[in-house]
Amino acid sequence: FFKCYIIILQNDNITLKELNISYNGLIAQDFKSLSKYFNSNPSLKKLDISGNKLGPQDANIIGVTFKKLTNLEELKLNDCGISDESVAQLFNYLNESSIQHLEIDSNNFGMTGPMVVMKKIQVSTKLKYFSYKNMTFQPYFIGMIAKTLNDNPGIERINLMENKIKDDELKQLVNATNNLKNKKIILSKDKVSDNAYDIINGNKNIILQ
User: Fold this and answer.
1) I need a surface site. Which of 57, 88, 113, 161 has the fewest CB within 10 A?
2) What does the pLDDT look like over 128-161, one tens digit per residue?
3) Between the CA of residue 3 and those of 7, 40, 41, 150, what are the distances in Å?
């Protein structure tokens, strides 16, 4: 299937707006080929490479590709095995991209990865939706989410479903969004305590699903 994608990308008469190459077992050489041919398809708006394992070398190639795809609005990097070592290379150019919708669910972040990502998102001028489902939470992470919601007017929705949220963490999110408009945080109702509704106390920015 991957060879078919390359043939399509090589064809100057075909304009791609969406490309789903998730769970294709891509390797570094494949990402190099993709990066090369994305130059001829700058109109691509949606890209899903979920399920392909990205090492540091691959992450750097994909990160540079963000700059080439000047119209890219939606990027899905779920279950890509992204580690702390790969995060910096992968999101180095996020601020220079046109990405509005970013998903990085079910990856392998450790202590530093979430901080790197959130610092990039805090100053992103285009990003509106960020999904961080089924991930590891570090003690500082909720505080950075709260800061992002306050500091970045463009962020509209943050999806934290499938993550266990403690009562004190939920209180931070409630306090951060009480006076904000057009900001939504999505949580899993089976991942919060029985006290959740009392803590939320009518805050319409916190959504339990």
Assistant:
1) 57
2) 999 999 998 888 999 999 889 888 989 999 999 9
3) 6, 16, 16, 45
